Task: structure prediction
Amino acid sequence: MVVKQELKSMTGNDAASYAVLFAKPEVIAAYPITPQTAILENIKQYVDDGLLDAEFVIVESEHSALAACMGAAWSGVRTFTATSSQGLLYMAENVFWSGYGRLPIVMPCVNRCLAPGWNIWPDFQDSMAFRDAGWIQMYTKNNQEVFDTVLQSFRISESKDIALPSMPCWDGFIISHTTGQVQLPSAEDAYEFVGSYDDPIIEIDVNKPWGFGAMTVPEQYSQNRRDLMAAMDRAKKKIVDVHNEFAEVFGRSYGNGLVEPYGDDVADLTIISLGTIGDETHEAIDRLVAEGLSVNALRVRTFRPFPEEDIVEFAKKNHKLLVIDRSVSFGHAGQLGIEVEAVLKRHNIDTPVKKLLRGIGGEDVPYTKIMKDAKEALKE
Result:
């Protein structure tokens, strides 16, 4: 039975703030950077108003913000922060420490271009720079999915068989500062879904001292990385399971939690993308199909762990893939396109892949542009 919910208008950042309020973290670290600042401002207000019983730590830098969360996670409490762009770069050392150290921190990245030149518009270059840092990365398409994904992230990261930090991502300004309708459950129902963090993965006990981060020999270091890889692999099923349970309780789903298909199962062309481009693609698909063209779409929701099996199964059924990226690995191609092409080659799937870069530097990617790209791909 789906729980009762209230429809409200709010920005994507407001939606994220509500998810954090309902999840009840005990430590929140804060340092402002556009376009994520409103998330932490909202949470600070919740703490000041007595709505959230938490330690709100105002720090002197982004590096310190994640360091505070690391200390809280090692102490065995639920913790949260948020960042973006240059701020994410500034905390780079601790991003890897948190990922490789298996700390269940939830930290959204509100995507914004990297300098130089200075640019406050969105692309995915910032979060993609940390795709190998051991963090779960999930890319959202609208304000509702922001709320849903942040809430799910606490459940996923804090699972003892996963123990990985989560980085929900959404397009700066396009989602973060734009108002949309969001179905909000009660605080009680949301917290019941997340659950308490009474049995933490790691908990410092002064009566049982232990060391973390000590020098390791190559064999132990290698085993740690294999363990992390295995946890990422297990995270695929965990994401699907948590997503499906969420759908049963709240009545919303996004494909299987890893990928979200749109349109017919089989088509001459499949458009694959992340984030709001994936949402805009739906409009393009509807119009292209109305023109008599055979086109469908697959939005990759979870980039890490990468949904290899889903991509392969979809590619087997479809005739050509068009991958649209909003970030680029310089000297090669867009990261999503690289990943898609690699998994198809690994499985000996010969479905052609065309890779395009769109929306870099915040350039608008309307459905009309996607339609044009699709028609050109169909002709090739």
Notes: The two ends are 48 Å apart (CA to CA).
